[in-house]
Amino acid sequence: MQIVNKKDSFSNKSIAKSAGVIALATMASRILGYVRDMIIAMLFGTGSPAQAFFQAFRIPNLLRDIVGEGAANAAFIPVFAEYLTKKDKKEFWELANVLMNLMLVILAGISIVGILISPVIVRLIAPGFVSDPEKFNLTIKLTRVMFPYILLVGLTAYGSGILNSLKYFSIPAIGPCLFNIFLILSALLLCQKYKIGAMGLAIGVLLGGVVQLIIQIPVLLKKGMDLRPGIKLYHPAAKRIGLLLIPRGIGSCVYQLNVFISSALASFGSIAGEGGVAALYYANRIFQLPMAVFGISIATAAFPQMSIHAARNDIEKLKSTLLFSLRAVLFITIPASIGLMVLGREITHVLFERGAFNSYSTGITYSALFYYSIGLFAFTGVNLLVTVFYSLQDTMTPVKTAAFALIINVVLSLLLMNPLKVGGLALASSISSMVNFSMLFMLLRKRIGNLGGMKLLDSFVRILLSSLIMGAACLVLSQNKIAGLAVTIPAGIAAFLFASFIFRVQETKELLLWILKRR
Predict the structure, then answer these.
(1) Is the pLDDT of residue 5 over 80?
(2) Which of 11, 273, 349, 425 measures 20 to 30 Å from 221, CA to CA?
């Protein structure tokens, strides 16, 4: 019988509480995001304007991950945690101010260069658009308008890194909600009312980026940060952060290359099917709900704690936090995966099928969603395992495994896109993510010792059996036209919980005890 240290239990409860706050905000953001996507789908369907916008928006998203959120996750938080543990607050804020100055210079430079070379970028990421001059030129215009978003979101993610290091999660988590609100307003006013097309969406992206940044300023000032402009660009720890950031940036490029390759291949409508780029986007939005609300929320909440354990060289507590987080992710993502595979077509229909989004659009989106769902746990688990390597200030190992997974993704995409169309591209991503997860888990076990693999396997089998019973119940109910999603989904959840008691899923018992204690 495993004995759980009381301090570990307290730490895990703290993570669960923080993850809950993040999950609620993320859920609100995702709901608003679906409202946003429903409006975009209604206005543009899977046609040329939608494909141009989605493809153009991938560029600032890539750079956001490399120098924005990626930097906050991989490089800033472990070093900030070390300064909070071993230094005083004055040195912490001195480092924070120097990094802010560096971020301003770097991100402004990237934005300017990006605007200038947008035609080259679009040729690389959407080669299938070249044969359609109107779609190609629109993608270039949208890319240029949205490139300054990298400056805004990069500074926002940097501020989030500081606040998360201080274990303050609420304001950073609320930011995406406001971003989606402004994008919704832009779609309704600029696109629908004033008829300026997809350009209205690009303007909404910039407005949302400004608001996300502004709401963090009062909190940062209250916490002790000096936001007055300065010229100091050097700090001893800045070089260390840069060395951590370089491989993390490469790793982000590798990850985003997976996305770009899928989108680039989907842009060849004669092979993958017309509307493939938009279908991949819509499918990704649906399948990322459980991934973002629960998986990423847990990883975000656990990361500062794991970084502190790593800074203190307390490997046992680090492993305890990881095992707790992985079990929580299993408990959410496995039933979610089965549920999306069974009910994905109806979910897509309810969320998007109206206006320009027709039954064909529903069909190709569901095809991608079905195959994405197969790898849901792997996608989420990779994010969590990578976070552990970052807490150990190792950003190179995830690069190596991601590069190998990229090769697998490319090969499988080329093999599967013809027989399975856009679904083949999604399946290739799922399989490559499973390979990446397996490699990361084995390498981490080799580095820090036993990770509780047998306990994880036991949880996996029990949760999978419970999820299959849930899936069978959902399948039966979905055949009955009277029982819509409002009935089928709650009934499926009830079936899963009932089955999990039969199969003695430990996480279900822990969840019930947690609910009873809070009453």
Answers:
(1) no
(2) 11
